[in-house]
Design a protein that fits this description.
Number of helices: 14
Distance between the termini: 46 Å
Radius of gyration: 24 Å
Mean pLDDT: 89
Shape: globular
Low-confidence stretches: none
Largest sheet: 8 strands, mixed
Helix content: 25-40%
Strand content: 25-35%
Number of strands: 24
Length: about 525
């Protein structure tokens, strides 16, 4: 950490996947950042397991999707299995849609991988400064910046960073959120959980029936890496300091053939944590913005938490870049919360409902086993088609804000989802591609291994069957590329030969002209409206 004070465009607080992805996105926009992480290194714990298709699309844009796939499990691990113990056979199983096999709606496929395998790839995706072992201890908002007080936890030395904006991705117990006095809504702490990382030879029990997660009546088992390693997640006992973790894991594993003892687990690490479920009441406080778990903590069941945070910063970073580079008005940052808060509430509702179903199923099966009932005939399965068919939540997110034009005007924003968290939502189940404003641009193959989504980057993209007509418009100062949209794809999008789609840098459609625009200034007016800026004279 430098001894002198430092000035940057954006200070990122938190070095998990969300903060690291924001750092990579902002660097591609030419935004100066510093990331501070209070821990001395990347997390050694597996934590998040699932990278869904939408997140892989973001990583494809960053050029790291292939490496992440190489380090991840093969596709056949994109499955969940439910057993009494790991040794027993399945009494339920289901595939994770968009992970176990390719889907026609995306050029990529999600993967099962551990967070500690993902983070080094994200760290290497940019070279902007990262200060490990540095903790934020104070924030002071100024008229045109934020002054952050930092402490080096190794030396005790302090310094100040002055940033135009602060992006807080510092987890569910966010120091930034607490210092701002931002409250949360939702169930809060749902369970105290312990993760035990261990080594054991379980090849004979699982090789023929691979899965990303094995839910059992005695906790959940997760293979950590293709080359080996396991984790066991279970409720934290009343006296964890005196627990014999190796014995607890071995009992949960079950007995092998015959009546002898089961496999002995070699415990590597133990971590206690709280399964939180909440959404922050505000995502935006002047020049300080919350993302990831700092803004919304999702239960781990279903793998929705980290992925929601990655889409947060994909939505936010181009807006920060526009304001900092001068081609967007500061009001554009207000659309971040307008667009992402409803998504957080909807996702929380789905995650909480599925978690409760899982807890109920495990509890019922434990009761059956304790009463001597061997066959799980009456267990209500902890999932449904809605649980695993999450493409509506993953690819079907719709934004309604001033940064989206419908018939030439911003639509009214969507209110946050109601707080009824008892039942899964039907909204997130199905995904029907559409080219309506506010939606993610549909994926079409433009050439072998070249998707419409590959046209997007650090710029706006105009997709049209007639690029010559639109290229005559000069939309400076906004970054814009005009790309040809094949006639058959234009027809699927409801466009005539004269029509066009204006796609934002995050891949969501900002404006749409089904046919010939009313005049040659239509594109300029749309860009000005979407970015909250003033059209050039």
């Amino acid at each position: 950490m430098p001894a002198a004070d430092t000035e940057v465009d954006v200070l990122i607080v938190g070095g998990g996947p969300v903060g690291l992805t924001a750092r990579a996105l902002l660097q591609r926009w030419g935004v100066r950042t510093v990331l501070v992480e209070k821990h001395s290194e990347l997390s050694p714990f597996p934590r998040s397991r699932l990278v869904n298709a939408r997140s892989m699309e973001i990583f494809r844009q960053l050029g790291v999707a292939a490496e992440i796939t190489t380090n991840a499990f093969p596709r056949e691990f994109g499955r969940i299995r439910f057993r009494d113990t790991l040794y027993d056979g399945d009494f339920a199983t289901a595939a994770m849609v968009g992970v176990n096999a390719p889907i026609p709606e995306s050029p990529v496929i999600g993967v099962a991988t551990s967070q500690d395998r993902l983070e080094p790839t994200l760290l290497a995706a940019a070279d902007a400064p990262v200060w490990f072992g540095v903790e934020l201890v104070g924030l002071a908002e100024e008229p045109d910046s934020v002054a952050a007080e930092l402490v080096d936890r190794r030396s005790g030395g302090g310094m100040r960073v002055r940033a135009r904006y602060v992006l807080a991705a510092d987890g569910a117990n966010s120091t930034v959120r607490q210092r701002l006095g931002i409250d949360t809504t939702g169930p809060g702490a749902m369970a105290a959980v312990t993760t035990v990382v261990f080594d054991a030879d379980l090849t004979g029990w699982c090789a023929d029936q691979p899965a990303g997660v094995y839910f059992t009546a005695h906790g959940s088992f997760l293979p950590l890496y293709p080359e080996g390693g396991w984790a066991w997640l279970a409720p934290t006992p009343e006296d964890p300091d005196r627990a014999d973790w190796a014995d607890l894991v071995s009992r949960a594993l079950g007995s092998g053939p015959g009546s002898g003892p089961g496999v002995r687990a070699d415990v590597v690490r133990v971590q206690h944590w709280v399964m939180n479920a909440f959404v922050a009441e505000r995502f935006h406080h002047d020049r300080i913005l919350l993302a990831g778990d700092a803004a919304h903590a999702m239960p781990v069941i279903g793998g929705l938490g980290m992925n929601t945070g990655l889409s947060d910063v994909h939505n936010l970073c181009w807006k920060l870049a526009g304001v900092l580079h001068g081609w967007a008005g500061s009001s554009l940052l207000e659309t971040y919360a307008t667009e992402r808060e409803p998504v957080a509430h909807l996702t929380l509702r789905q995650a909480v409902a599925n978690t409760r179903l899982m807890f109920q199923a495990q509890s019922l099966r434990q009761e059956q086993l304790s009463s001597g009932e061997s066959a799980p005939a009456h267990v209500e399965l902890p999932w449904s088609d809605r649980y695993f068919a999450q493409l509506g939540l993953v690819l079907g997110v719709t934004y309604r804000s001033a940064a989206v034009l419908v018939d030439g005007s911003p639509p009214p924003p969507e209110p946050p989802e109601p707080s009824d968290l008892s039942e899964p939502s039907d909204v997130g189940t199905d995904y029907v591609p559409t080219a309506e404003p506010g939606h993610r641009m549909p994926h079409f193959w433009r050439a072998p291994d070249r998707s419409t989504l590959d046209a997007f980057g650090e710029w706006f993209t105009l997709l049209t069957p007639d690029p010559t007509r639109w290229e005559r418009q000069t939309p400076a100062p906004w970054p814009l590329r005009v790309e040809t949209l094949a006639a058959e794809h234009a027809e699927l999008c409801g466009l005539s030969a004269d029509g066009a789609l204006l796609v934002r840098p995050d891949g969501h459609i900002g404006a749409r002209w089904p046919g010939r625009p009313p005049d040659d200034s239509a594109l300029v007016r749309a860009l000005a409206a979407v970015t909250g800026s003033t059209a050039p004279a």
